[in-house]
Amino acid sequence: MSRLAGAIAAMLVLTACGGVGGPGRPAGESLTTMGFGLPDEIATVRVDAFKKAYPQVTVRINEGAFDEQAFLSAVASGNPPDVVYLSRERLGSYAARGAIQPLDDCVSRESVATGDFYPAARQQVRYDGHWYGIPEFYNSIVLIVNNEAARDAGVDPRSIDTSDWDRLAELARRMSRTNGGKVERFGFNPKLPEFLPLWAKANGADLLSADGRTSRLDDPAVAEAMAYANRLVESQGGWKRLKAFVDTWDFFGARNPFAEDQVGMMLSEQFLVSSMAGTTPDVAITVLPFKGRDGQPVNLVGGNAWAVPKGARNPEAACRWMKTMTAADTWVTAARARQDKRTKEGKVNIGTFTGNARADGTIFTEIVRPSGKAPFDEAVKTIRAVQPAGFVVPQSPAAAEFKKAWEDAGTRVLLGGQDAAEALERAQAEARKAIDGAAS
Amino acid sequence: MRSETRWAYVFVLPWLIGLALFQLGPMLASLGLSFTEYDLISSPEFAGTANYARMAQDPKVAVAIGNTVLYTALHVPLAIVLALGLALMLNRVGGRGAGVFRTIFYLPSMTPYVAVGVLFLFLLNGQAGMVNQFLGLFGIDGPQWTTDPDWILPGIVLMSLWNLGSTTIILFAALRNVPAELAEAAMIDGAGTWARFRRITLPMISPALFFVVIINTIASLQMFDQVYAMFFGNQATQQASGDSALFYVVYLFQQAFQFLHMGYASALAWVLFLVIALITLVQWKVGGRLVHYEAGDRA
Known about the structure:
The complex is a heterodimer. By secondary structure, chain A is α/β, with parallel strands linked by helices. Chain A contains 18 helices and 14 strands. Helices cover about 45% and strands about 15% of the residues of chain A. Chain A starts with a helix and ends with a helix. Chain B starts with a helix and ends in a 9-residue tail after the last helix. Chain B has helices at about 5-35, 50-55, 60-90, 95-105, 115-125, 130-135, 150-160, 165-175, 180-190, 195-220, 225-230, 235-240, 250-260, 260-290; strands spanning about 35, 45. In chain B, about 75% of the residues lie in helices and about 0% in strands. The interface between A and B is large, with 51 and 51 residues.
């Protein structure tokens, strides 16, 4: 009855937004995925590895990014995929509501080598003491410096140290450039509100308790970090103007903001470095660790995970799929294919940063070779160096609402509607209510 | 029952079947769910009128209603005045060019809403968008349409005026049905252009005007696709707008599919339904006094 009601309700709400659903699937050894695509050899090689290992399983890959509306409607109507590929951040909300299954049996039955995964990735796929996902990539955050902007500001890019917030603010001002009211170069993009957890950590604070049940948005150190990052933005022209400027950037193309001298420094996931290696291998950048005020690297990590929805018809095959796709050997094979392809194309390869530490060990010692492009070869060393400092916002039963609360707070501050303490006080109340409601 | 009436029902039957199968059932189910706590996954739990009570205390509902009502108040009159202007121009075009112009005027309506949303995100960009570049030709330093909370809603209204095709065509059809002899008689009596428009054209097309007011009001209150594509489709744009682009249906969607509060979302949907029904009823009552129906036109 609840399934029927769910399907009907979803249909009503979706009337204006497009529907979901599909034809029935044959029973037996078939495996249907959702949220996954086959854009490159890293995907295709691993899929081929699974097909080779389990030729009796017919794999149906519904290519496309994860769509929560499609996913939830599929689960509610009793027609879910066997395995879903989604951001690890979302797992807590879905696990708390039973939309995805615990994987403890899968992990033990198939002897998934969970010890191979990075600790932060492991933490992010566990909720309430159970496995709910198997991690894929491991995206680290680094500071990318535009060497030309650094020279304009009179500093050696390699000497930039983010642990001194006063000097960092001064450097941001020196790197920024405006002309006739138009922003020409964003000196330092602190990526607020998106990277608030990173700024808070750099200031010695966490947004959420380790068990994911107590919001700590009202911690004065969080407000101090948010206020500082906001002052950085204000001192460079203000959020409204800068955001409009950022919206014009071609992040992943040949005219990326570093190639176009549109940014001085920016905090970014390492995949932007990877993209630049392919599109603009001669770009003059320096990749540095982002250090907290105590001088130690801090690194907010993220990535996707595989999970098995409630009602999946072939959870056994799903389990084998997740194990195969994330196993060290599979990653190494895929990384080797990537290296071969890049070598043939004459392109720089900075490697594949997986959630599997054992795989990365092999990839970065045996497969990825120095390209001769110093910025990228140094970048690989930096990224590898900050990986152990990886941390995550713990899973919470109200993960989506919690994130929305602090992101909205950050936006209110950036737009000048509230100061950091006021905004976070409101966010704290919203977060507490959401977490209490979801946990009850 | 007259034969004509029977045939009318036959022609309406496919729509009635669709309504019964695909809309009435889900509507009734959502009415039931609006009295429950339901996360789409677990079984619904009866919650009485808690969801409706929660709406009264939810500050985001007030924000969403405010944005939606303000948008409707700006969009509907602007859209109808502009569409009427376009229809009047189309009505003056004769010969072979007429069909071409009608097609051109309707073409924007063929563009998918999501594409329009993304397109206008570029056009309205405060730093490099064509709208501000155009304003710059007149020495005007254009606003930050997509990042300044004070200008986001006007920007959305501007975007909404892209899609006037349907309203224009309906009003154009009505204008074509205004008897030419009425205007000729008025001219002989010495009536000027404005007097003929106000005394003859407007009353004669008032049923069509009334219709487009109602459908534009309903569409405005249900605004979703373009705004979602512009400001909520990805994290970067979502961060820029705060609550300035939070329309009622966007909030309903967030509650249903981001936060998994399907019971609450159902309550939001039903309140919207009732508000639209009420507004339409008021428009109908007021319109009845303002609209000119020729003898036999009114049911």
